[in-house]
Design brief:
Number of strands: 20
Shape: globular
Number of domains: 1
CATH architecture: 4-Layer Sandwich
Radius of gyration: 21 Å
Helix content: 25-40%
Strand content: 25-35%
Length: about 425
């Protein structure tokens, strides 16, 4: 599809971003991806609203449907992959409780795309809508986002601390038996009869966290509010990049103590072991679709600091084989190793057995395809999901369980990761 572009200069970046998102939120279908001025990104944020066409499906034959959908469009497509697409990749099932009711996969071809860089706003509209650009830009600049009262919701645990520790001990038994050597074990926090303002809650969460792969999705009554720090997979031309996170340390307000936290994380043998295990898993996933000899580790166990936590992040890249379709590249790496464990299939089977909730969109991926079939997807972590129709709000957190895991400390790590979501929901 041919899209016309028109550029406008930006005077106040933060104000323009908030006005643009608030204006976009009037629409029924919204995708907002925000890099929060991350150094590795040239795009500050991108908004996609309204639907020309869409794909919504469960896991059955989902990746084949996605390939058939995006290939002939030659246009931008935004959406998400749910964790339970694992059942399309392998012979697996998902039978646990799931109250949010997101589909397993959803993508849409937007009517209107608006990209923000540090200095300008770029409208990318189909020719049929080019006359709406100036009017929309004027409305965005005068749009007032009405602030709402802070949320005050009582958050419940799907499993309590005692049960969590028992489940981690079961995972450790499987590890000691050699059935798996790393498992990402997650737990859900939720509230029923919950009334929240999704947009304001997202803005509050993003203020607290300001992560490089933040996203806001709206599909009628379904919302995702994500403060993800993690990239799953990016394709630019022939190059694929994955940036798994394994290793977390709390930020300290005192500068010296905060530096000590970085030093401790950088030299933590357990966290390093967890990270290297996932790096090896990603290397293996990429090897199935990479040009021979092109898989490399660009950075191993780098330490990156965010507002609330320090994270250990590695970067793995390769050159994709010329005959591999981009959707097949994603499928070969899905679900991401940082949210499963290793060996991957054994870990996913054990996850289904031990966890109390179906993950759904959590630990899936949000992102977009370009007309050239390049793509960029995050990992859906540090995220709130909300079904406004059912008044059900939920967020999940997890940690990597290895042979060296201490159940109490793993629980504390989960609470640290839950802190921002709990703060914006329960005030």
């Amino acid at each position: 599809m041919q899209r016309i572009q028109k550029h406008f200069l930006v005077d106040n970046l933060s104000q323009t971003k908030e006005q643009l998102l608030a204006w976009g939120n009037q629409h029924t279908t919204v995708a907002w991806l925000d890099s929060n001025s991350h150094l590795k990104s040239t795009t500050e944020a991108i908004l996609a609203v309204d639907i020309i066409s869409s794909l919504c499906t469960d896991y059955k034959n989902a990746f084949a449907q996605l390939k058939s959908y995006i290939t002939p469009l030659q246009d931008y497509v935004f959406g998400f992959l749910g964790y339970d697409l694992k059942n399309d990749v392998e012979n697996l099932t998902s039978t646990n409780t799931y109250e949010v009711d997101f589909p397993d996969m959803y993508f849409f071809q937007p009517k209107k795309i608006i990209e923000i860089t540090a200095k300008e706003v770029i409208f990318k509209y189909p020719l049929a809508f080019k006359n709406e650009i100036d009017k929309d830009w004027k409305n965005i600049n005068t749009f007032v986002n009405t602030k709402t009262v802070k949320n005050s919701i009582q958050i419940k645990h799907r499993i309590d601390k005692e049960n969590y520790i028992q489940q981690v001990k079961k995972a450790l038994t499987e590890i000691h038996l050699g059935n798996v050597y790393e498992l990402n074990f997650c737990q859900e926090f939720y509230a029923e009869n919950a009334l929240i303002d999704p947009l304001q809650t997202y803005l509050d969460l993003n203020t607290i966290s300001a992560t490089p792969f933040a996203s806001y999705l709206k599909m009628e009554h379904l919302f995702l509010l994500s403060a993800s720090p993690e990239r799953f997979l990016k394709k630019t031309g022939e190059t694929l990049i994955s940036e798994p996170i394994k290793g977390t340390a709390k930020r300290r307000s005192d500068v010296q103590k905060d530096q000590e936290q970085i030093h401790l994380l950088k030299n933590n043998t357990k966290e390093i072991a967890e990270n290297i295990m996932i790096v090896d898993l990603v290397r293996n996933d990429l090897s199935h679709i990479a040009q021979k000899g092109s898989v490399k580790v660009d950075e191993l166990c780098g330490i990156y600091s965010f507002k609330q936590v320090h994270q250990m992040i590695s970067t793995i890249s390769c050159q994709i084989q010329p005959n591999i379709h981009p959707v097949d590249a994603i499928k070969a790496c899905y679900p991401m190793g940082s949210m499963t464990g290793a060996p991957k299939i054994a870990a996913m089977n054990l996850i289904e057995e031990l966890e109390a909730s179906k993950r759904g969109i959590y630990s899936g991926a949000v992102g977009y395809f370009t007309p050239e079939l390049d793509f960029d997807f995050n990992v859906v972590i540090r995220s709130i999901v909300y079904n406004a129709q059912k008044k059900y709000v939920s967020f999940s957190v997890g940690s990597a369980i290895t042979a060296m895991a201490n159940p109490e400390k793993e629980y504390e790590e989960c609470l640290l990761k839950a802190k921002a979501m709990r703060a914006v929901l329960s005030n």
